Amino acid sequence: MDTDYAIVPLPAFNDNYIWLIRRGDQAAVVDPGDAAPVLEYLERNHLNLCAILATHHHGDHVGGIPDLLEQFEVPVFGPAGEPIEDLTQSLMDGDHVELAQFGVDFEVIAVPGHTRAHIAYYDRNHSSCGALFCGDTLFACGCGRIFEGTPVQMRHSLARLAALPGTTKIYCAHEYTLSNCRFALAVEPDNAALQKRAEEVSRLRNENQPTVPSTMATERNVNPFLRWEAPAVIEAAQRISGKPLTQPDEVFTAIREWKNRF
Ligand code: ZN
Ligand code: FE
User: Fold this and answer.
1) Does residue 159 belong to any structural domain of this protein?
2) How many CB atoms lie within 10 A of CB 244?
3) Which one from 61, 118, 126, 156 is the annotated catalytic residue?
4) Does the annotation mark 118 as catalytic?
5) Sheet of 131-135, strand order
6) Which helix (H) or strand (E) holds 71?
7) Nearest ligand to the C-alpha of residue 30?
8) Which tens digits make up the pLDDT trace of 163-188?
9) Which range of residues forms the domain containing residue 129?
10) What CATH number is associated with residue 31?
11) Exposure string (b/e) for 117-127, b if CB count within 10 Å is 16 or more?
């Protein structure tokens, strides 16, 4: 019998996903930028909201929290050190979030870079694969913009995520995969795994299907922001910056800056 919780994408705004987890009649949401799709789903499925989790303070991730709290008196988990109204549980690297309703114990991984205290939630046991809710840090075939941290911090954060098991499913907060693949192909035109993934992604988008979750194994093979050690990525970074680059941080920084202008 499968007693695991289910994970459902709730599309919001243009390209956000609010991830809803559910088991029995209980639900929790990750990054509810908008309350409307959450309330609608809860009502339609007769679910009770029991927790809200936020990865970082941006409005498209936390904007729906006040409206949800008007209907449900629930704990709001999120990073310590970011301005999130209504936060009740401030989290730091290594903290755990136990939600008994789902039989889950999330590990909190600090992944600064996109914002100064961005966190990810990791359940190593989900569905025998592992589940990672990583907000705007790691995207399918891409990574978040660096708004408050430094490229060195961001690469370190991504390296920590990349070290998780290959089976880990990646529940990121945006459907950016198609345009990310376009950039990734500019970096590594000859990467066969990437070519295959790009085809799959464009098929899925044509069918209006989500391209996420991805898996960590796939990302290690196709995502230019995890591939600072791949010779083709190093070469592309050197070409675009017009100088020899030897350090992973330099390679990552050059690729990230290129993406900003792509
Ligand atoms: Zn963001
Ligand atoms: Fe976002």
Assistant:
1) yes
2) 9
3) 61
4) no
5) 96-99, 104-110, 119-123, 131-135, 169-172, 214-215
6) helix 65-71
7) 2
8) 999 999 999 999 999 999 999 999 99
9) 6-176+212-224
10) 3.60.15.10
11) bbbbbbbbebe
Asked about 174 being catalytic, the answer comes back as yes
Closest listed ligand to the CA of 174 = 2
- To the query of whether residue 114 is one of the catalytic residues in this protein, the response is yes
Identify the pLDDT of residue 2. Answer: 56
Among residues 31, 34, 56, 57, the one annotated as catalytic is 56
- Check if 46 is active-site: no
Q: Which of 31, 34, 114, 126 is catalytic?
A: 114
Burial of 100 by CB count in 10 Å (0-12 exposed, 13-18 middle, 19+ buried)?
exposed
CA distance 65 to 183: 33
Centroid of ligand 1 to alpha carbon of 3 (angstroms): 32
Is residue 126 among the annotated active site residues?
no
Ligand 1 centroid to Cα of residue 216, in Å, is 21
Q: What is the mean pLDDT of the chain?
A: 97
Give domain status of residue 231, yes or no.
no
CA 188 to chain CA centroid, Å, is: 22
Strand partners, 30: 19, 53
Do the domain assignments include residue 248? Answer: no
Structure tokens at 71: 């209907």
Closest ligand, as measured to the CA of 115: 1
Task: Indicate which residue of 31, 34, 57, 58 is catalytic.
Answer: 58
Q: Is the pLDDT of residue 83 over 90?
A: yes
Radius of gyration of the chain (CA): 18
Q: Is the pLDDT of residue 39 over 90?
A: yes
Q: Could you give the number of structural domains in the chain?
A: 1
pLDDT, position 1: 44
Is 246's pLDDT higher than 90? no
* DSSP 8-state secondary structure symbol assigned to residue 4: S
Residue in the structure block whose two tokens are 């919780």: 5
